[in-house]
Design brief:
about 80% helix, about 0% strand, elongated, single chain, mainly alpha, 3 helices
Length: about 90
């Protein structure tokens, strides 16, 4: 049950990150109100890093900002390590 909840959490957070990247790219094109980078950073830390990385690639958005992509990749690596440690101590799903 724990693994299912964790999978759902990461999937939903990633979907939200992907969607926010698309929304922010659209707002950037139309000179609208942008989404703060700190919002993306918080979402990446909460599990949405994979969607943010995928959204950046699909929408060609914020890929040249080293600090932004660095945070997203660091959060993704952190989540992978966290899951691996949980698997080691709690057992494989």
């Amino acid at each position: 049950m724990f693994w299912l909840l964790l999978d759902c959490w990461i999937s939903l957070a990633s979907a939200a990150g992907f969607a926010l990247m698309g929304v922010d790219k659209s707002r950037a094109r139309h000179h609208g109100r942008r989404i703060r980078e700190s919002t993306f950073h918080k979402l990446a830390a909460a599990g949405g890093a994979f969607g943010i990385i995928a959204g950046g690639s699909v929408f060609h958005h914020k890929t040249l900002k080293d600090t932004f992509t660095g945070v997203a990749y660091a959060a993704a690596i952190g989540w992978v390590l966290c899951v691996l440690l949980l698997q080691r101590f709690l057992g494989l799903p």
